[in-house]
Design brief:
73% helix, 181 residues, single chain
């Protein structure tokens, strides 16, 4: 019974840390009062309604946005981006340190939120926000030891992130080079 309680407590701590990390990464959106958008965000939102699709944008990010905004609010889409980054940072911390803990994760995300552009990209509804997800997912696939269900999730993230922006394809190629040697 004690092991089961500890496992449930660890899972609860991880969930709180991942959610807290996601919230920390959204501080620019909270400060703005809404997720950050760019003129192209409207084009991506229009992709799911346009026939034919918008010709100058990959047809990946628009449907991803649509899956989360439900034509009600863009907050769920921003939250999904921030939670994705928080989860990838959690997994990266576990890979690098051999374990992941809530306090260490929240400290890392707080430092990244204060000293890098990570929160600005996590709050921005553009496919550019998936570049760090691509880097972390490929690193975790190449050097981490993901469980089978995590491997599937990481492959899905890497595939969608690479396909979401034309600049992510050469980035993926550069990331795969060290894995080939």
């Amino acid at each position: 019974m004690g092991q089961r309680r500890r496992t449930a407590r660890d899972a609860a701590n991880a969930a709180v840390a991942l959610g807290g990390g996601g919230a920390l990464l959204l501080w620019p959106a909270f400060l703005n009062g809404y997720p950050l958008v760019f003129v192209d965000t409207a084009s991506f939102l229009h992709q799911t309604a346009a026939v034919p699709p918008v010709w100058d944008k990959p047809v990946v990010y628009g449907p991803l946005l649509h899956a989360f905004h439900w034509r009600l609010s863009l907050w769920p889409a921003a939250a999904a981006q921030a939670l994705l980054l928080s989860w990838l940072l959690w997994r990266t911390g576990r890979m690098l340190r051999g374990r992941a803990d809530a306090d260490g994760h929240l400290l890392l995300v707080a430092a990244l939120s204060a000293g890098t552009a990570a929160p600005w990209f996590a709050s921005l509804l553009m496919p550019d926000a998936l570049a760090p997800a691509l880097v972390l997912a490929v690193a975790l696939l190449g050097w981490g030891d993901p469980r089978p269900f995590e491997r599937f999730g990481l492959l899905l993230v890497a595939t969608l992130a690479a396909a979401a922006h034309l600049a992510h394809l050469p980035l993926l190629g550069a990331l795969l080079l060290p894995l080939a040697v």
